[in-house]
Amino acid sequence: MPAPFGAVDRVALGAVAFALLAWVVAPGAAVSSWAALAAGLLLLGRLARWQGWRTWREPLLLVLHVGYAWLAGGFLLLGIAGLTRWLAPADAVPGLTVGAVGTMILAMMTRATLGHTGRALHAGPGTCLAYALVGLASLLRLAAPLAGDNTLLLLVLAGAAWSGAFGLFVVLYFGPLTRLRVRRCDTP
Asked: pTM of the prediction?
């Protein structure tokens, strides 16, 4: 079982709230960068408590931990980008958007679809490929600004991997989702 919600969780979530507020109010300020770094480190600590590596046999569960790792990594990248100049702050944002949001959306869509259509909560090879593609899209998107003359190529490849991940979801889950029988509220 995962570690129970406690002080570490409260501090980490408070740090995230503060980092987001600082990022909105003063995106270029040092306090925003330090807050983002602190939030990222605290999120990593929180993630470590959950022992996600133990879920490696079930990708449907592992991918949730990977998405959360992207959240921590996104905050770390924001902090590093603000404190150093090797990465522009805007180029760190895909860690949060493509990485964390994209991974979590795909993970939750697959899990919810399997559950709501009465299927086993198990990610098959196609679903695992979709997870890998969204991860690849995240890495390529983050690497693109650092690629010099190959920036556009990496952006195109990142877009193709992203589209492939969500396109594969449609191919794999369209049938089960469209065969759902919805019970009307006014029927007994």
From this structure: 0.87
